[in-house]
């Protein structure tokens, strides 16, 4: 009985898949915060190279992956697909559970799929330095890795609560040559204003984005790189789902359910969009589940509206499921999922009824992660535990109904740098937190008026 399904390097995807080509309704336009009109490529030029701006607005179904990017991908791609046979047995379920494992990359997550691509295009454009934000540190370490490959300086603003929680992620970024700054910081106007209002701010991805954008916009030799949310970032991640399509064919199965955890949306889009594209083209049906933390529930509790992508309101306005740009989440260990908004493309897909969102509490997610680790041997990152939890729940539903559904989820990283989270969980130090209705209403009251 096969456990893992491996593609050879010559079967690696040669193009990224753009779901915009298959959607029945176009994505709402990105708006200029000053004029309220759709932004132009020139508006984005201070932040991104032309090639990435073109990908951001492209409606083409396939965008070719440059040879140099493919050659770097081959260091860890194609990634393995596993059949979780021991988990199936432990759950006593008739379901078949598969997981695509992205923890084999040098940075230990799916994030290098876009970090390498972004570093390549910025290098081609003559950029000297990339600025970015990071929560859990998986994105920051991925961009640091990519920057080292292409000889680019990397400046990372790391959300302060994660900066303190995850010193080894910070050390990994620094080992790759990046400079890491706890956010909010005294280095930017955005950071100083936040600290003036709240000297003890634990930070948020929205604040860290503000700092990174401010620096990039004010320095001609710098550009900004984002690890999630934007269309071109989600595009680069679709190598995951494309490989999984081929590997599921090798296994002689096709998923009834595809699960991904969602914070900004890149991991979810990476696994789900190629399968969703097949559904939209009338090839095979599939149920898509997007899982987010109850402490940061943009899809399940937020509003689908135009909002800023950052706290200091330096970014354009995008239509997305949002909790409000001033939202600062609790310091849950799933730092990569602590973002006030959801990727516009993921938000649009959910709004069209093409994916079902759900939220999970962190204690249940850690319990699921340990169940998985004790039978499959891989310790998931706290973010990935949300997908593990949903996959286990769906498998247990099959146990109750007697159905033998095929479940596929994306195990988007490993938890080797997150052991303090597991120590805290097993010591009973973690608690479930929920974003109250009053806090939701307060943050959403500040949404920008568009119309």
Automatic annotation (TrEMBL):
<dbReference type="InterPro" id="IPR006316">
    <property type="entry name" value="Trp_synth_b-like"/>
</dbReference>
<keyword id="KW-0456">Lyase</keyword>
<dbReference type="InterPro" id="IPR001926">
    <property type="entry name" value="TrpB-like_PALP"/>
</dbReference>
<comment type="function">
    <text>The beta subunit is responsible for the synthesis of L-tryptophan from indole and L-serine.</text>
</comment>
<protein>
    <recommendedName>
        <fullName>Tryptophan synthase beta chain</fullName>
        <ecNumber>4.2.1.20</ecNumber>
    </recommendedName>
</protein>
<keyword id="KW-0663">Pyridoxal phosphate</keyword>
<dbReference type="GO" id="GO:0030170">
    <property type="term" value="F:pyridoxal phosphate binding"/>
</dbReference>
<dbReference type="InterPro" id="IPR023026">
    <property type="entry name" value="Trp_synth_beta/beta-like"/>
</dbReference>
<dbReference type="InterPro" id="IPR036052">
    <property type="entry name" value="TrpB-like_PALP_sf"/>
</dbReference>
<dbReference type="GO" id="GO:0004834">
    <property type="term" value="F:tryptophan synthase activity"/>
</dbReference>
<dbReference type="GO" id="GO:0005737">
    <property type="term" value="C:cytoplasm"/>
</dbReference>
<dbReference type="Pfam" id="PF00291">
    <property type="entry name" value="PALP"/>
</dbReference>
<feature type="domain" description="Tryptophan synthase beta chain-like PALP">
    <location>
        <begin position="75"/>
        <end position="413"/>
    </location>
</feature>
<comment type="similarity">
    <text>Belongs to the TrpB family.</text>
</comment>
<keyword id="KW-0028">Amino-acid biosynthesis</keyword>
<dbReference type="GO" id="GO:0052684">
    <property type="term" value="F:L-serine hydro-lyase (adding indole, L-tryptophan-forming) activity"/>
</dbReference>
<comment type="pathway">
    <text>Amino-acid biosynthesis; L-tryptophan biosynthesis; L-tryptophan from chorismate: step 5/5.</text>
</comment>
<keyword id="KW-0822">Tryptophan biosynthesis</keyword>
<keyword id="KW-0057">Aromatic amino acid biosynthesis</keyword>
<dbReference type="InterPro" id="IPR006654">
    <property type="entry name" value="Trp_synth_beta"/>
</dbReference>
<feature type="modified residue" description="N6-(pyridoxal phosphate)lysine">
    <location>
        <position position="111"/>
    </location>
</feature>
<dbReference type="InterPro" id="IPR006653">
    <property type="entry name" value="Trp_synth_b_CS"/>
</dbReference>
<comment type="subunit">
    <text>Tetramer of two alpha and two beta chains.</text>
</comment>
